[in-house]
User: Which sequence fits this backbone?
């Protein structure tokens, strides 16, 4: 690659072509596979067959949360399907409390397949309940259909080494209750040697293996040899930890079980809404989830699960073709080798071509400026667009446009800085500065975040090896391939997370996405040298494209009928003062005019719930309804030292399924519901999805399956003075008068999670 012909733009344009090819490959390979028809081989997983099961489970589009008649009907369908396949099937019924301070009676469906010998079993798990607002087709009836199709595919095979337990549990949406009941109470839990858990946080997309148990090297080995189109990375779990979600595998891991977790997250705007129905459930996602789970189960059922297999792995898939992995302890040495190789190449270039070291210093400064400028500018553009009204409620109907705008911004700024500095750095300085920074950053990442460090380690290693080969076998300056190979490695590794991070975390990730693209784009620096006019034309065009796409994203509607705004309506009434109100909580924090006309809402967001200081919504007064608040009868009160124990009998005259007791957290020592003590505070606080009401000091102790006779709370508190809190019951749907608000809710908005509810409350003093 000559450094004297400043009109030669071929290498630079070739580098851009490498990026385009890598993007096309990433986009194509990241799609889930085509669904197989119901006529596929009986040994294969077929989305056609599983789709028929799915329609039989939830084709009626009825939500089926824990404790409802619809939940029982779905459960009965699952039991019948297992029995028709010839599996011994039982239902575990248990009242259980989870670590999020929620209790309820669950009904877990458990089927078994014997192995050639008794011993550790493979647990294939998912859940059959939904949230109250959603039919739950993708979350998680799709996975229930996967479990049943896998049971069908395995039933005629000769017995495998290990037994298989099929668990379709209940109450996952309420707080992982079914998994807790199985793991802590069922005898089969002690026989589990490995878990394959299935989930979803959307209605489409590839099935991604996003979480493993701690000692995961052996699991990744099986994954690598078994999956035909793997989507997996040790980077995914740190991202998942930032989501306000847990899955059943959280419980299984806490009880010492080892395993993997698969999920798809495309079209998250439909998650936990009425649009999570059979029509929107992607057959391709169903196929990918099923073939991944079946492959992993088949790998585990013949593995020796008696043997402890320690070791952590760093791993990633290469465009779905296969998985690269190595022991986590090898990461820092690999990073060190990359830095050493780069230093050797720099010294050889200096000696052979008399390249002054100051050019490498210029290259380092340029690299740092590229990343810093891209990060600052992308954050500035994101803030400016957000303040101008883009992405209200962190939503948009044009996510691809928003992502591409920030991709182009990151690339444009990197290339502009490279164009400014290339005249001083020249090729030797650009290569040296670029890959010296990459390799040093790889060493830092390998020390602090080894699971994510492969993003830096692998391209730096490729650069060092390619550079070393070049300086050994070529007397002239480095050729195009020496710069293009590490660029390709960087593109293959950085593009997938930079593309799909938005699906996981939404618009707030756009600056991080631009930063990631900028880091990847710095690998172009050595190719910008001697690029002629193209070194200015390309970044300016990219910058203009970023601006145009940002403008389109700003003007794009945030919501549509297919990607609706989340907007619940609640009726809240207190027994003591007759205070009754409508409460509406729009995702965008803007109340539609039609809803303002339906009720006398105030102009501003207010503290809508007296037990929550920071939760704000729009509230409108409404006449008191003739509805009975929950009853609270103190049946026993006694003291022991500085503590008092109070037994409280709680009933819901209107037959509410959900009751919440909200008490000051600092005064509560323990709480039990129907004799079952809620896990200790230390375990409560370790949960990311804590139920503590922010800013109020109150914690909700909830029962989600209240029987007609009511429930009993046993509360131990500190201090002699009374403890004041709230008792609230909740039913789905609205009282008379609520229909007007539901009709006024825009077509581009929908209920989510618990949906529209009626809440009756009273103050309590214990």
Assistant:
């Amino acid at each position: 690659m000559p450094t004297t012909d400043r009109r030669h733009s071929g290498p630079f344009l070739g580098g851009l072509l490498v990026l385009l090819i890598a993007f096309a490959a990433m986009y194509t390979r990241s799609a889930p596979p085509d669904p197989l028809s119901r006529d596929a081989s009986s040994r294969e997983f077929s989305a056609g067959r599983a789709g028929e099961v799915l329609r039989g489970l939830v084709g009626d589009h009825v939500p089926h949360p824990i404790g409802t008649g619809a939940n029982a009907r779905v459960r009965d369908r699952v039991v019948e399907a297992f029995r028709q396949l010839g599996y011994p099937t039982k239902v575990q019924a248990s009242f259980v409390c989870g670590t999020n301070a929620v209790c309820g009676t669950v009904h877990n469906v458990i089927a078994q397949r014997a192995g050639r010998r008794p011993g550790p079993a493979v647990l294939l798990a998912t859940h059959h309940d939904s949230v109250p607002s959603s039919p739950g087709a993708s979350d998680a009836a799709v996975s229930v259909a996967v479990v049943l199709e896998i049971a069908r595919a395995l039933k005629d095979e000769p017995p495998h080494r290990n037994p298989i337990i099929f668990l379709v549990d209940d109450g996952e949406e309420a707080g992982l209750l079914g998994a807790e009941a199985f793991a802590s109470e069922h005898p089969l839990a002690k026989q589990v040697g490995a878990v394959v858990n299935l989930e979803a946080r959307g209605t489409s997309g590839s099935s991604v293996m996003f979480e493993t148990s701690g000692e995961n090297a052996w699991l990744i080995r099986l994954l690598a040899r078994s999956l035909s189109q793997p989507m997996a990375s040790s980077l995914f779990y740190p991202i998942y930890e930032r989501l306000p979600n847990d899955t059943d595998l959280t419980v299984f891991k806490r009880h010492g079980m080892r395993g993997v977790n698969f999920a798809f997250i495309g079209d998250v705007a439909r998650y936990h809404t009425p649009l999570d129905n059979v029509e929107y459930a992607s057959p391709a996602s169903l196929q990918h989830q099923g073939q991944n789970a079946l492959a992993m189960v088949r790998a585990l059922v013949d593995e020796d699960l008696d043997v402890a297999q320690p070791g952590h792995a760093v791993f990633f898939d290469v465009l779905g073709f296969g998985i690269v992995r190595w022991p986590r302890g090898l990461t820092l040495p690999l990073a060190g080798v990359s830095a050493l190789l780069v230093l050797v190449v720099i010294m050889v270039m200096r000696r052979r071509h008399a390249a002054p070291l100051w050019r490498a210093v210029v290259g380092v400064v340029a690299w740092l400026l590229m990343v810093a400028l891209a990060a600052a500018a992308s954050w500035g553009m994101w803030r400016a667009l957000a303040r101008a009204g883009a992405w209200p409620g962190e939503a948009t109907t044009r996510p691809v446009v928003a992502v591409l705008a920030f991709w182009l911004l990151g690339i444009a700024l990197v290339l502009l800085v490279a164009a400014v500095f290339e005249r001083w750095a020249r090729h030797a300085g650009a290569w040296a500065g670029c890959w010296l920074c990459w390799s040093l950053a790889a060493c830092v990442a390998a020390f602090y975040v080894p699971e994510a460090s492969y993003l830096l380690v692998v391209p730096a290693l490729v650069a060092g090896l390619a550079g070393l080969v070049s300086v050994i076998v070529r007397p002239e300056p480095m050729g195009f391939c020496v710069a293009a190979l590490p660029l390709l490695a960087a593109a293959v590794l950085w593009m997938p997370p930079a593309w799909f991070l938005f699906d996981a975390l939404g618009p707030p990730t756009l600056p991080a996405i631009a930063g990631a693209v900028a880091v990847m784009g710095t690998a172009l620096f050595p190719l910008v040298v001697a690029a002629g006019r193209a070194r200015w034309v390309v970044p300016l065009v990219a910058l203009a494209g970023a601006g145009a796409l940002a403008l389109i994203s700003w003007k794009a509607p945030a919501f549509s009928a297919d990607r609706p705004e989340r907007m619940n309506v609640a009726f809240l009434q207190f027994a003591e003062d007759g205070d009754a109100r409508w409460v509406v909580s729009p995702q965008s924090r803007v109340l539609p005019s039609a809803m303002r006309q339906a009720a006398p809402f105030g102009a501003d967001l207010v503290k809508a719930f007296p037990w929550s200081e920071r939760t704000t919504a729009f509230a409108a007064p409404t006449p008191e309804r003739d509805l009975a608040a929950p009853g609270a009868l103190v049946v026993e009160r006694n003291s022991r030292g500085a503590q008092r124990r109070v037994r409280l009998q709680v009933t819901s005259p209107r037959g509410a399924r959900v009751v919440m007791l909200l008490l000051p957290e600092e005064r509560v020592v323990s709480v039990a519901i129907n004799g079952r003590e809620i896990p200790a505070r230390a375990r409560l606080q370790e949960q990311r999805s804590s139920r503590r009401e922010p800013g109020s000091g109150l914690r909700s102790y909830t029962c989600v399956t209240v029987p007609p006779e009511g429930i009993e709370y046993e509360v131990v508190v500190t201090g002699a003075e009374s403890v004041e809190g709230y008792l609230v019951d909740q039913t789905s749907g609205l009282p008379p008068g609520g229909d007007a608000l539901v009709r006024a809710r825009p077509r581009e908005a929908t209920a989510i999670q618990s949906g529209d509810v009626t809440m009756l409350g009273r103050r309590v003093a214990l």
Summary: Residues 1-7, 681-695 have pLDDT under 50 and may be disordered. The two ends are 81 Å apart (CA to CA). The chain has 21 helices and 23 strands. Residues 399-448 form the longest helix (50 residues).
